[in-house]
Amino acid sequence: MKFLLVFDFDHTIVDENSDTWIVKCAPEKKLPNGLRNSYRPGHWTEYMGRVFVYLGDNGVKEDDMERTMTTIPFTAGMVDLLGFIGENKELFDCIIVSDSNTVFIDWILKAADFHNVFDEVFTNPAAFSSTGYLTVQNFHAHRCPKCPKNLCKRKVLKEFLDKQCERGVSYTRIVYIGDGGNDLCPVMLLKKDDVAMPRQGYTLEKKIAQLAQDLSPVECSVLVWSSAADIMSYLKLLIKE
């Protein structure tokens, strides 16, 4: 009996968007209008690449970035929740599927000592170049028309489950915890015994509600959360079942 917990990162584990938080490193803590307005829907990773070039051009170093990123606040109750999962790893496999990047997530989890809670992190690969600039790449290529071009979370989840299946690992239940529009695609993969946990008041909750109104509801159960304490209460019930 093992459960799989799938977490989004921005506005789920941390209470901000890590990609916009880094702007605190910029001169006057803001980006020039031309750069801000250069974002094209579905092309966030390329946009962040331009942001990182701007920061590098303005002398922002790796240390400055790391110091800034590790001040990002965790969502209410999340520190306790991750501690609880860490103490019950024999029951929970735990992964992150995020549109952030490896460098940011690594810094934030290490600083809070939560690395051991997560079995795998699936996110856009990032690294510092020889000139000290942060670079980021698309996570993968995919054909899903609903998702941004750098990441289809459903594809990631399906490939992870297939790989686990080959290793003889299957899950009693999958619990998907997220907030954003790009979390809907993986939620559509979940079966009736699984649970989607959208954050209250955020896009994922609204999209799931819209599907129910359109009489094409998701197959899994839906439990809304506003604090990670709600998630912990549910996991405690799950363990008792």
Automatic annotation (TrEMBL):
One of its GO terms (molecular function) is metal ion binding. Its cofactor is Mg(2+). Keywords: Hydrolase, Magnesium, Metal-binding. Pfam families: Put_Phosphatase. Substrate binds at D19, D99. Mg(2+) binds at D8, D10, D179. It comes from the Eukaryota. Gene3D superfamilies: HAD superfamily/HAD-like. The active site is at D8 (nucleophile), D10 (proton donor). Belongs to the HAD-like hydrolase superfamily. PHOSPHO family. This is PHOP2 phosphatase. It comes from Smutsornis africanus (Double-banded courser). The lineage of its organism: Eukaryota, Metazoa, Chordata, Craniata, Vertebrata.
